Every structure is written in C-alpha cells, then in structure tokens.
Amino acid sequence: MIRIPSTLMGTLLAAALTPPIVLAQESPPMTGEQTKAMQEFAQKMQECMARMDMPALEARGRAVESEIAALCSAGKREAAQERANAYALEMAESDAMKGVRECGELSAPMLQSLPAADGSGGAGDVPGNIMEMNVCDSIGGDGVASP
C-alpha cells in the first residue's frame, strides 16, 4: 500500500522499531544476557530517536499531505504524484532521514541475532506494482489517507 507523505516518517520509524519487538515476542525465551542486550538496545534507540525533531517532521508531513490531498480532490493526479515524489526525494536527502538511517543501523546487530518470526524476511504487504500506482489511490474520497 502506498502511504501519502505524512505517514512516511511513521512508517519508517515503525519499520525501524517494530521488528525487534515482534521478534522478541514470538521467539523462544531470552537468556538474562539477551534480555540485558535488548534493554541496552532499546535505550540506545530511544536516545537516537530523541535527537530528532519529530514534531517538525510531522508538521511538515501534514502540510505536504494536505497539499497532495487538495491536488487529488481537484482531479490533478499527475501533479499530486509529482508532489509526492518531490517530497519523498526531499525526505530521502534530508538530515532527518540521515538520522533515521543512523538509528536504523543500530538495530542491525540486534536483528541479526534474533531469528525471523515467520522465516519469510519478506517485504510485508507492499504490492508488486507499486511503481505503477498513484498517490491519489491511497487517498479516500474525502482526501484523507486510507488506512
């Protein structure tokens, strides 16, 4: 499913933080050392994420989301897609995303030490034709992102 820009940051943060939690819940019981390592990892992630200005990122995302929703509501699908692409590029090159990537890199050693809960290691529910989709397809008739 394509999410419009305001959900991009939340999705990235959820992807960075959720796997260790999910895997820990579905994995065999951890040893004392593993529990301590998980707690230390969680502390490092909290410290890393605290360095980011999340309210500013969310406000920027909401503003762009409103702009895109207005374009979609006006039937300007191509313009909406261009704006979404521009915002995605802007975010990918931003200092904020560099910070998200740095925080995500903290999770690599932890994730490698945990077994996959379902063994798939797949990309979830991302459709195979994602590049052919338009951002307006993820917005309901009222201009609001679909869940």
Keywords:
147 residues, mainly alpha, disordered C terminus
Helix-strand makeup class: mainly alpha
Main beta sheet, described?
A: none
Strand content: under 5%
Helix share bin: 55-70%
Regarding quaternary structure, what we see is single chain
**Overall body shape:** elongated
Distance between the termini: 9 Å
- What is the succession of H and E elements? HHHHH
Could you tell me the radius of gyration in angstroms?
A: 18 Å
- Overall number of strands: 0
Q: Mean pLDDT, nearest integer? A: 73
Explain how this protein is built:
The protein is mainly α and 147 residues long. It has a domain at 1-15 and 53-114. It has helices spanning 6-26, 32-50, 54-73, 77-92, 95-113. Helix 1 (6-26) packs parallel to helix 5 and helix 2 (32-50) runs antiparallel to helix 5 (95-113). The termini are close together. The relative contact order is 0.20.
Write the layout of secondary structure elements.
Blueprint: H1 6-26, H2 32-50, H3 54-73, H4 77-92, H5 95-113
Helix pairs in contact: 1-3, 1-5, 2-5, 3-4
Quick structural summary:
The protein is an all-alpha fold and 147 residues long. The chain has helices spanning 6-26, 32-50, 54-73, 77-92, 95-113.
